[in-house]
Amino acid sequence: MRIVLVGPPGAGKGTQAAFLAKNLSIPHISTGDLFRANISQGTELGKQAKAFMDAGDLVPDEVTIGMAKDRMEQPDAVNGFLLDGFPRNVSQAEALDVMLQAEGMKLDAVLDLEVEEDEVVKRIAGRRICRNDSSHVFHVTYAPAKTAGVCDTCGGELYQRGDDSEATVRNRLEVYHTQTEPIIDYYKAQGLLVTIPALGEVADVTKRAMDALKK
Ligand code: AMP
């Protein structure tokens, strides 16, 4: 299956993507994670992306599309993938269609995680992520780690992403509304869009998404 996950920052894309990818036995491809890995390894691509990410802006398409394409061409992705955070604007969505068409492939579904804006800000402000694995996500109030600052799953250090500060979150939401939301209509027009209410327990949201994919 080839699936795209969309939704505002804080909708739980990373958390849901990890569960869905595992259930479906396909790789979870997160462009945000790929950028963060490049930054921590000090690569040229990481240097190009960093300032945009710190400000909560989109990294330019010239950098992003090539990186996403390289990842989708890896052997583990031949039978499908779950894209998390890509595409993030209409020109990336068009580039993805061109890429897939060239290989005789197409998307199976686009899952839109829907959540209220106030909720999103609360979720992001309290979010803490494991340095070892960004799919190990905690929240200081909603999902606290047993020991503050330490990942329950692997013992890694928990940290707050630099771009999770309130000012940057406001900009990321603005960027989401102006640049990313138009892809919802783009995919609706292709008959691919499935809207999933993303409130409630993590496992319930995963179930809603899995049920929708079976239809
Ligand atoms: P995420 O982890 O998906 O929230 O992404 C973190 C940041 O990485 C975003 O705020 C952007 O600066 C950058 N980023 C991730 N994916 C993309 C993309 N598809 N296009 C442009 N920038 C991206």
From TrEMBL:
Keywords, alphabetical: ATP-binding, Cytoplasm, Kinase, Nucleotide biosynthesis, Nucleotide-binding, Transferase
EC number: 2.7.4.3
MF-aspect GO terms: AMP kinase activity
Organism the protein comes from: Streptomyces avidinii
Record-annotated Adenylate kinase active site lid domain positions: 127-163
Family matches, as InterPro entries: Adenyl_kin_sub (IPR006259), Adenylat/UMP-CMP_kin (IPR000850), Adenylat_kinase_CS (IPR033690), Adenylate_kinase_lid-dom (IPR007862), P-loop_NTPase (IPR027417)
Compartments, as annotated in UniProt: Cytoplasm
Enzyme class: transferase
Segments of this protein annotated with the region NMP: 30-59
UniProt superkingdom: Bacteria
UniProt similarity note: Belongs to the adenylate kinase family.
Quaternary structure (record): Monomer.
Protein name: Adenylate kinase
Record function comment: Catalyzes the reversible transfer of the terminal phosphate group between ATP and AMP. Plays an important role in cellular energy homeostasis and in adenine nucleotide metabolism.
Reaction catalysed by this enzyme: AMP + ATP = 2 ADP
Residue ranges of the TM segments: none
Pfam family, one: ADK
Binding residue positions for ATP: 10-15, 127, 137-138, 200
Binding site for AMP: 31, 36, 57-59, 85-88, 92, 161, 172
Primary subcellular site in the record, as a coarse category: cytoplasm
Domain notes: Consists of three domains, a large central CORE domain and two small peripheral domains, NMPbind and LID, which undergo movements during catalysis. The LID domain closes over the site of phosphoryl transfer upon ATP binding. Assembling and dissambling the active center during each catalytic cycle provides an effective means to prevent ATP hydrolysis.
